[in-house]
Specification:
This protein is an alpha/beta fold. It has one domain: Aldolase class I (TIM Barrel, Alpha-Beta Barrel). About 40% of the residues lie in helices and about 15% in strands. It has eleven helices and ten strands. The chain has helices at about 15-30, 40-45, 50-60, 85, 110-125, 155-165, 175-200, 220-225, 245-265, 285-295, 320-335; strands at about 5-10, 35-40, 65-70, 90-95, 100-105, 130-135, 200-205, 230-235, 265-270, 300. The strands form two sheets. Strands 1-2-3-6-7-8-9-10 form an eight-stranded parallel barrel, surrounded by five helices. Strands 4-5 form a two-stranded antiparallel ribbon. The longest helix is centred in the middle third of the chain and has 25 residues, at about 175-200. Bound molecules: zinc ion. Zinc ion binds near residues 93, 105, 152 and 154.
Length: about 350
């Protein structure tokens, strides 16, 4: 299911449509064909019609729209908080030592019902693709070694676990816990993708670039195999993880291509365009080149204008990052392999 070349950019931080109109001109002049709009819990509660307006502006300009449940429930990627978790403490994840995590458990039926309202909103706004970004059980990367295996032992998980196993989840061995955790992610994604497709939208999943059983999803083929999934990818942000760009992005691109070919899905790779150190902007070219050479024709970047507007993750020279990305996208749209220099 290979499709034409696509070039995307995520956009967030601004909820002033008349300013977005100006930014969108730049998005177009930087050769983007789609915009990933974030639609967080805060947006859903306070900016629903504003986001709808921005989605409409994007579509009227001829660009495709992805909608991203940014940090919703703190189950997806995104630098924001979850109001749902605070209002529904009983639905929060419980860590192996009994500590409450600042994230909702997606095995809780109330959160599953909440996600359906999110999908209904997205359909009403006219989103083309729902972008399920980095779905995961709560982890703290900085404290990765705190537990032998990270998992949730909340009542919803434990009850679900007991339906198919003898005993409680916290009594199980590591292998059983990992299998249960991964089954839960797949079931959750399956449900989201089915609802989204039934509402007329496509589905894209982006997995965190880990294949580590202690924290991540070890077998990606189970995600790619989801029947109602259309687009599959990952976000190997080499500078963020302090890795070599060609090795890191290249290996993940080849993995994504292989899996997508196997299951007939569209491969997508995310390019780091935030927190780029001064003097290293050309590494975006290398990242795009290795992804393109592997066969990826759907590239997306996080985020607009080098993420200049979020000090936590901004690039040193956002204008340069943005312009380099625009050049790369121009090359790709012309059918040229992005120049790595
Ligand atoms: Zn749980």
């Amino acid at each position: 299911m290979r499709t034409s070349t696509k070039t995307g950019i995520s956009y967030f931080g601004n909820r002033i449509p008349r300013h977005f109109v100006t930014d969108l001109d730049e998005v177009k002049s930087h050769n983007c064909t789609f915009v990933v709009h974030t639609y967080s819990e805060n947006d859903q509660q306070f900016y629903k019609d504003t986001i709808a307006e921005m989605v409409a502006i994007t579509k009227d300009a001829g660009l495709e729209v992805y909608l991203d449940p940014w940090g919703v429930g703190r189950v997806f990627g995104g630098e924001t908080y979850s109001s749902f978790a605070l209002k529904n403490l009983r639905t929060c994840q419980i860590l192996p030592d009994g500590e409450v995590a600042p994230a909702v458990c997606f095995n809780h039926p109330d959160f599953r019902a909440f996600m359906q309202t999110w999908i209904e909103d997205a359909a009403e706004m006219g989103a083309d693709v729902l972008f399920w970004d980095e779905p995961h059980f709560f982890i703290d990367i900085k404290e990765k070694h705190r537990y032998d295996v990270w998992y949730c032992r909340c009542p919803a998980c434990d009850q679900k676990f007991q339906k198919s196993h003898d005993g409680h989840i916290f009594e199980a061995d590591k292998k059983t816990i990992i299998a249960f955790r991964e089954d839960s992610v797949i079931e959750f994604l399956n449900e989201l993708c089915e609802s989204s497709q039934a509402a007329g939208m496509k589905n894209a999943v982006c997995m965190l670039p880990f294949r580590d059983t202690t924290i991540g999803m070890s077998d990606w083929s189970r995600v790619v195999a989801i029947p109602t999934l259309d687009i599959f990818g990952t976000d190997p942000y080499w500078m963020f993880f302090n890795k070599d760009v060609e090795t890191f992005v290249g290996a993940f691109s080849r993995d994504v291509i292989e899996l997508c070919n196997q299951f007939g899905k569209e491969p997508q790779m995310w390019i780091q365009a935030y927190k780029i150190t001064a003097g290293r902007e050309d590494e975006l070219r290398q990242a795009a080149a290795v992804a393109y050479e592997a066969g990826v024709r759907n590239l997306a970047a996080w985020s607009y204008y080098g993420n200049a507007f979020m000090s936590y993750n901004r690039s040193d020279n956002p204008q340069k990052v943005w312009d380099v990305l625009g050049e790369i996208y121009g090359q790709i749209l012309r059918g040229e392999t992005p120049s790595p220099f």
